[in-house]
Amino acid sequence: MKKIAPVIVTFLLVAVIAIITISLGKKQKVLTIYEGNLDRQPVPIILGHYQDTQCAMFVEQIKDAAQAVAPDGRTWFFDDVGCLMLWQETNKLRAEMVLWVYTRDTEEWVDARTAWYSRTDDTPMEYGFGAYQNRQDGLIDYHEVSLRMLRGDNLTNPYTRKELLGHD
Predict the structure, then answer these.
(1) Rounded to an integer, what distance in angstroms lies between the CA atom of residue 2 and that of residue 4?
(2) Helices (H), ranges, the chain
(3) Using CA atoms, how far apart are residues 150 and 96, in angstroms rounded to an integer?
(4) Which residues, other chains included, contact 53 with Cβ-Cβ below 8 Å and sequence gap of 6+?
(5) Which residues contact 82 (CB under 8 A, 6 or more apart)?
(6) In whole angstroms, what is the distance from residue 132 CA to residue 94 CA?
(7) Three-state SS for 131?
(8) Is the dihedral of CA 147, 151, 156, 157 positive or negative?
(9) Mean pLDDT across the stretch 144-156?
């Protein structure tokens, strides 16, 4: 009995840990792609529940979030506008996608292609591109953001950071 007791205790402990892990995994299901968004509108974001398709970080704040919706209703999520720009450039459906960004000035979802972007905002991945619905001095358009992300001309680049912010 003394030889069997440690084996039984170990087996029970492993079983309890497995049950807890499985139940937590079911409760906290993380989504990288939402399916069925046939009206192609922005999906309400549940913070910490959606994972960025490009960088794999969780979407933890709405103010810099973005979404891409395919014609079949699949929706991808991004924690930073820069991640959306990088991802959509390699996606074969990019011309057919509806792209949404959450704006800092009006705090609503707008078409990414019609939004304006700052180059110096504090964003989750530190690219610096905060989205705005209304045009203001110094803001750039969607095509310029896309080009700058592809060239690496954003705040993660020390030369760009120094040029725009005056420090490293």
Answers:
(1) 6
(2) 4-27, 81-89, 142-151, 158-165
(3) 20
(4) 32, 33, 68, 76, 77, 78, 83, 87
(5) 123, 125, 127, 128, 129, 145, 149, 154
(6) 21
(7) strand
(8) negative
(9) 96
Map tokens 């299901």 to a residue.
Answer: 29
Contact between 51 and 77 under an 8 Å Cβ cutoff? The reply is yes
In whole angstroms, give the CA distance from residue 68 to residue 85: 10
- Classify residue 33 by its DSSP letter: E
Cβ proximity of 34 and 45 under 8 Å: no
pLDDT at 136 over 60: yes
Distance (Å, whole) CA 87 – CA 23? 33
Q: Taking the CB of residue 70, how many other CB atoms lie within 10 A of it?
A: 18
Structure tokens at 85: 């720009």
Encoded tokens for 82:
């820069």
| Predicted TM-score (pTM) of this structure | 0.81
Residue 30: pLDDT band with limits 50, 70, 90: confident
Amino acid identity at 166: G
Enter the tokens of residue 120: 């110096």
